[in-house]
Amino acid sequence: MRIGLSITHHVKHLALLGGALLFVGVSVTLVDRALAQAAQDAPVAASGEHVLSIHDRGEQRVVITKARTLREALKLADVDISIGHDVVEPSLDSELVAPNYNVNIYRARPVIVIDGLVKKNITTAEQTPDRIAKAAEMTLYPEDTIEFGVPDSFIDHGASQIMTIDRATVVNFTLYGKRSEVRTRATTVAEFLEEKNITLGDNDYLSVAQQQNITAGMNIELWREGKQTVTVEEEVAFEVEKVQDANRDVGYREVKTAGVNGKRNATYEIEMKNGQEVSRTEIASVTTEAAQKQVEIIGAKLPTPTNPSEAQALGKQMMLAAGFGEDQWGCLYNLWMRESGWRTTAGNVSSGAYGIPQSLPASKMAAFGDDYLTNPRTQIAWGLNYIKGRYGTPCGAWSSFQAKGWY
After folding, report:
1. Which of 60, 114, 294, 401 is a plausible cystine mate for 407, CB 3.0–4.6 Å?
2. Average predicted confidence (pLDDT) for the chain
3. CATH classification of 50-106, choosing from 3.40.50.720, 3.30.110.40, 3.10.20.90, 3.30.1490.20?
């Protein structure tokens, strides 16, 4: 009974210190007993089991499971989850390896997101403003503020929560030459500078008065007098490669591969006087994203020639399309000018040679079209093929003609 006497003595001395302290001592004892009792009542997982404390809609439920994943465990416990709407932490596919888990289920509910004149009704289980805005396909910025509320009437609004976004004002701010889009909750330029932790130096020049009110889209520039270097990001225009297609009519245009502008960081030395830029010299440039060339198909098919001049234009086009260089045109022009004057009906009475390329006999050109007697396109196609096969190039054929009088 010694222990009992010790406890009585302890309480007696506590009483001498005042009833309040005695009350605290008794309360602590009761709490300790409650915690001990709770610990005794808490389920204990056996080997291979997991204890899940499931928090759902303000209620807690404890289950013991041998499931491999949280998804399996909730299914076995008959906890319905709306996939794509409800949010579960940890994630449904989390593998259960620890003995104890706290599982939070956030049920999807209707939310009205108001962003100025834009109002969106969504159903989401997300809890934070950023995630709710993302579910509404909106972007929040650090300077924006959020206010949550409940609708006056669920019947009228059909939502359990309203999230109103108060957007910060967007201004164009140039800081020593670097221009950027900045958001602010300041009402004056002076407040803006304070908000952004900017202190004006003795040689700094501000493009607007500090007392001026902030308005959406306004330009605020801060420069430093004298020479200074600034680095700005600039777009690099993409090149356009035009590929002529002799099988397409003139005027046809098709973008085969769309071009993409590149980006570069350009460094300039700028001289400022009285807040005005008086000179700008580029001193360095680094390409950060290469531009992607645009490839366009351009129709280059000429109409059927009706005279030697039109046949010559068609001949040059077909020569280039056949893979011969621009330097070969003079040779081809001279060769067929001497042979036929670029006339489709030119014929040699003594030899029987015929057409622009003076095919001998004319029927050889039939392999390129039944209209070989009248169509300059057919005649030129045969003539270029003949030159390539026998002489390699128009200049090779022209050299042979000059030496022998024929080719």
Report:
1. 401
2. 86
3. 3.10.20.90
What pLDDT score does 45 carry?
66
Helix (H) or strand (E) holding 124: strand 118-124
- The full DSSP string for 205-268 is EESS-TTSBP-TT-EEEEEESEEEEEEEEEEEPPPEEEEEEEEEETT-EEEEE--B-EEEEEEE
253, containing H or E segment: strand 253-257
Question: pLDDT at residue 365 above 70?
Answer: yes
d(CA 314, CA 303): 8
3-class DSSP state of 154: helix
- Cα 143 from Cα 11, distance rounded (Å): 59
Number of continuous H segments (helices) and E segments (strands) in the chain = 10, 18
Q: Which of 3.40.50.300, 1.10.287.110, 3.10.20.30, 3.30.450.40 is the CATH number of 169-224?
A: 3.10.20.30
What is the per-residue pLDDT across 306-343, written as a single tens digit (0 to 9) for each?
899 999 999 998 999 899 999 999 999 999 999 999 99
DSSP for residue 208: S
199 vs 39 pLDDT, higher one: 199
Tokens 């001498």 belong to which residue? 16
What are residue 93's DSSP bridge partners? none
- Residues 141-158 have a mean pLDDT of 80
**Amino acid (one-letter) located at 360:** L
User: Residue holding tokens 């005005």?
Assistant: 276
234-297: which CATH number, 3.40.140.10, 2.20.230.10, 1.10.10.10, 3.90.79.10? 2.20.230.10
Phi, psi of 287 (to 5 degrees): -80, 125
- DSSP helix/strand/coil, 196: coil
